[in-house]
């Protein structure tokens, strides 16, 4: 691929006065502006070996090379072995005669790792070389040329190391010592809802007017529970800016309180309603951070998966399903 550069200059000239205009017309200085743009498009060159001659006694090495690499931030070049003419899958490759009456088998490795059809064989964020080792050929029974055509696919991908990149919203994944549902996803992060209850706990220690900002359950989740994660896991958890809407019932409109910054939090009424019913329905009651109809009540999800906007008294225990956001570089 060729890199393309464009130089754009926007010019504005000073207005020219008529020769009949008096000099006093230029009493005030006039100015012009020039906008200069320099646009560099992503570009790179990847060289795949045109051919590899196998040896019956020793392994041979072939290099995939990347040069003239100009990429956007957080991007990488990925080279995958996407097909082999005689090998549908796996890491045992077959070179055959034209008539197919003799087969020589061989393997390909990247360092100490065997390569299979479908594997990524090279990644580049800058110019570089990736060596592939082809083992000696074995098993041929007839003389003649034994060949196989390998197909490599070159693409530009995200360079962010997101371990959940291949997962979809609704999948169950592991984080820390718990199973979680992915309920939101971006290139560099996921939002997780605990699959099962962490514990059964009251929204607040006493039956009094309270909001998510001031309740004892928020203190517990962002204190003891957050502290239970390892240092590596805590480094992946990012603070979430939560708005805390009032109860949606117009006859009550109970205040949801101030916005909060949370490492760990509960879903709001609207966030719970947006979930797939299979994720929301656990067969038991679990708490939301939104207020119920009264200042001393909190909304919840019922044991049939329906969202209970009326809510429960804040000192009555129910299931706790924490939510958190992870960010990856």
Q: Could you give a quick summary of the protein structure above?
A:
The protein is mostly beta strands. The protein folds into three domains: 5-40, no CATH class; 43-158, Immunoglobulin-like; 172-327, no CATH class.
SSE map:
Blueprint lengths: L4 E6 L24 E6 L2 E5 L12 E11 L4 E10 L8 E4 L6 E4 L1 E3 L2 E2 L5 E5 L3 E7 L15 E9 L13 E4 L2 E9 L2 E6 L4 E3 L14 H12 L3 H6 E2 L1 E3 L17 E3 L6 H5 L3 H4 L5 E6 L5 E5 L5 E7 L4 E3 L2 E5 L2
Antiparallel strand pairs: 1-2, 3-4, 4-11, 5-10, 5-12, 6-7, 8-9, 8-11, 13-14, 14-15, 15-24, 16-23, 17-24, 18-19, 20-21, 21-22
Description:
The protein is mainly beta. The protein folds into three domains: 5-40, no CATH class; 43-158, Immunoglobulin-like; 172-327, no CATH class. The protein is built from four helices and 24 strands. It has helices at residues 216-227, 231-236, 269-273, 277-280, and strands spanning 5-10, 35-40, 43-47, 60-70, 75-84, 93-96, 103-106, 108-110, 113-114, 120-124, 128-134, 150-158, 172-175, 178-186, 189-194, 199-201, 237-238, 240-242, 260-262, 286-291, 297-301, 307-313, 318-320, 323-327. β21 (297-301) and β22 (307-313) form a beta hairpin.
SSE pattern, N- to C-terminal: EEEEEEEEEEEEEEEEHHEEEHHEEEEE
Relative helix content: under 10%
Quickly count the helices: 4
Structural class: mainly beta
Report the principal-axis shape.
Answer: elongated
Give a count of the beta strands, DSSP E runs of length 2 or more.
Answer: 24
Largest sheet: 5 strands, antiparallel
How is the largest sheet built, in terms of strand order?
3-4-11-8-9
Low-confidence stretches: 1-21
Mean residue pLDDT: 91
């Amino acid at each position: 691929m060729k890199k393309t550069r464009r130089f754009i200059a926007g010019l504005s000239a000073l207005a020219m006065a008529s020769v009949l205009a008096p000099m006093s017309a230029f009493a005030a200085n006039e100015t012009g502006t020039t906008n200069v743009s320099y646009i560099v498009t992503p570009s790179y060159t990847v060289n795949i070996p045109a051919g590899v001659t196998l040896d019956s006694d020793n392994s041979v090495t072939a290099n995939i090379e990347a040069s003239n690499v100009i990429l956007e931030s957080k991007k990488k070049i990925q080279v995958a072995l996407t097909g082999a003419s005689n090998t549908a899958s796996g890491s045992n490759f077959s070179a055959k005669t034209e008539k197919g009456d003799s087969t020589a088998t061989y393997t390909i490795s990247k360092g100490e790792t065997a390569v299979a059809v479908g594997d990524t064989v090279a990644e580049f964020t800058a110019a570089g070389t990736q060596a592939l080792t082809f083992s000696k050929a074995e098993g041929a029974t007839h003389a003649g040329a034994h060949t196989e055509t390998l197909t490599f696919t070159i693409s530009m991908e995200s360079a962010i190391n997101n371990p959940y990149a291949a997962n979809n919203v609704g999948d169950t994944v592991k984080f820390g010592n718990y199973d979680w549902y992915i309920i939101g996803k971006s290139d560099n992060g996921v939002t997780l809802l605990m699959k099962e209850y962490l514990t059964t706990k009251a929204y607040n220690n006493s039956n009094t007017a309270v909001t998510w900002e001031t309740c004892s359950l928020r203190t517990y989740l962002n204190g003891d529970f957050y502290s239970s994660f390892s240092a590596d896991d805590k480094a992946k958890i990012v603070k979430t800016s939560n708005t805390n809407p009032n109860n949606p019932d117009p006859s009550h409109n109970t205040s949801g309180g101030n916005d909060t910054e949370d490492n760990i939090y509960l879903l709001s009424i609207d966030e719970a309603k947006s979930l797939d019913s299979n994720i929301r329905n656990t067969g038991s009651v679990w708490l939301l951070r939104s207020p119920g109809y009264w200042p001393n009540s909190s909304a919840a999800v019922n044991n049939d998966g329906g969202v209970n906007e009326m809510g429960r008294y804040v000192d009555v225990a129910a299931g706790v399903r924490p939510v958190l956001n992870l960010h990856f570089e």
